[in-house]
Write a structure and sequence with these properties.
Blueprint (H helix, E strand, L loop, with lengths): L31 E9 L4 H4 L4 E6 L12 H4 L5 E3 L1 H13 L5 E4 L5 H13 L6 E5 L5 H6 L6 E5 L5 H8 L4 H16 L3 E2 L5 E10 L5 H14 L5 E5 L20 H13 L5 E3 L23
Parallel strand pairs: 2-4, 4-5, 5-6, 6-8, 8-9, 9-10
Antiparallel strand pairs: 1-2, 1-3, 7-8
Helix pairs in contact: 3-4, 8-9
């Protein structure tokens, strides 16, 4: 928890004393803020399985993407504050409900609190694989500190062009930061590993969201992955982009992905011979649960 006294958990390195009431870019304080939690059946198959991924949608985020579907809690701070005992019960409830893992969505501002909870439950013999579900905007020093906490990295690689990264997420350094972070994740966890029931227990999954007018960047990132890490990394190519939030009024971001853009990416996936992964069907409708809206506030297991 000392990390909160001069918070440098994300690449912004704000250095604020959260315990003294100071707030950095993400506006996170001391008490963990959670918007929704519960079994999630809309993740990649090895994560959702049959019983669902035990997903915790944390409030606050280290990026402010103009198209974020989660903006009410990621940017505007909607959610409920949980002291450490209450947060422990959230994790305990997901375990008791039979979820396959603890899936932590945007956990970076809350890592000290998560560490406390997971360690406390482990001493009581309660353990699930931890899915570190991130935008990819991560500090390598922070990743080094969670190597023994995270079992599965579920990370984004959103851009290959600093101009797009600045326009879409306000960080022109995103490409370099996210690629460096992904290499660390791969070094730590390697290829996706499944148990006898096909449920993920360890490894790395890289998500690539096709953005309008930027299919070429997905192809560039796929090529970079194949050349730098190899086709053995699990990739999840997503075609679900829907204009939301500030993207609704931003030229170039205010439309869905075209069939031509989708086909361009699909062709690259086939040509690069990735061994493991998924590609979302064109115009496939993601379930509402993907963004947490179908979960009841403060109650996860139904």
């Amino acid at each position: 928890m000392k990390a909160l006294q001069s918070c440098e958990l994300c690449p912004r390195g704000c250095g604020v004393d959260r315990g003294a009431g100071e707030r950095g870019f993400c506006r996170a304080g001391v008490e963990t803020e959670v918007y929704r939690y519960g079994p999630h059946h809309g993740e990649e198959p090895p994560l959702s399985g049959t019983a669902g991924s035990g997903t915790v949608f944390f409030s606050r985020c280290t990026l402010h993407c103009l198209y974020c579907q989660n903006y009410p809690w990621s940017q505007q701070g909607d959610g409920t504050r949980y002291a450490l005992p209450a947060l422990t019960e959230v994790f305990r409830e997901l375990h008791a409900g039979g979820c396959h893992n603890w899936n932590l969505v945007s956990p970076t501002p809350w890592l000290p609190q998560v560490r406390h909870v997971v360690d406390k439950l482990a001493t009581a013999g309660i353990r699930l694989p931890v899915v570190y579900n991130t935008s990819g905007f991560e500090a390598v020093d922070t990743l080094a500190g969670v190597e023994d906490l995270a079992d599965i990295y579920l990370t984004d690689l959103r851009y290959a062009d600093p101009v797009s990264a600045h326009e879409g997420s306000g960080r022109s350094d995103y490409v370099d930061v996210a690629r460096a972070a992904l290499q660390v994740m791969w070094q730590q966890k390697g290829a996706l590993q499944l148990d006898a029931d096909g449920i993920a227990t360890r490894g790395t999954i890289c998500r690539l969201l096709i953005l309008p007018g930027r299919a070429g960047e997905v192809v560039d990132n796929l090529t970079w992955l194949a050349d730098t890490i190899g086709p053995g990394i699990a990739v999840s190519v997503m075609a679900q982009y829907t204009p939301a939030y500030r993207a609704l009024t931003r030229d170039g971001w205010d439309r869905p992905v075209s069939r031509e853009e989708y086909d361009r990416v699909a062709e690259a996936v086939a040509e690069l011979d990735f061994d493991c992964g998924w590609m979302q069907a064109y115009e496939g409708q993601a379930p509402n649960e993907l963004i947490g809206f179908s979960m009841e506030p403060g109650s996860g297991i139904s």
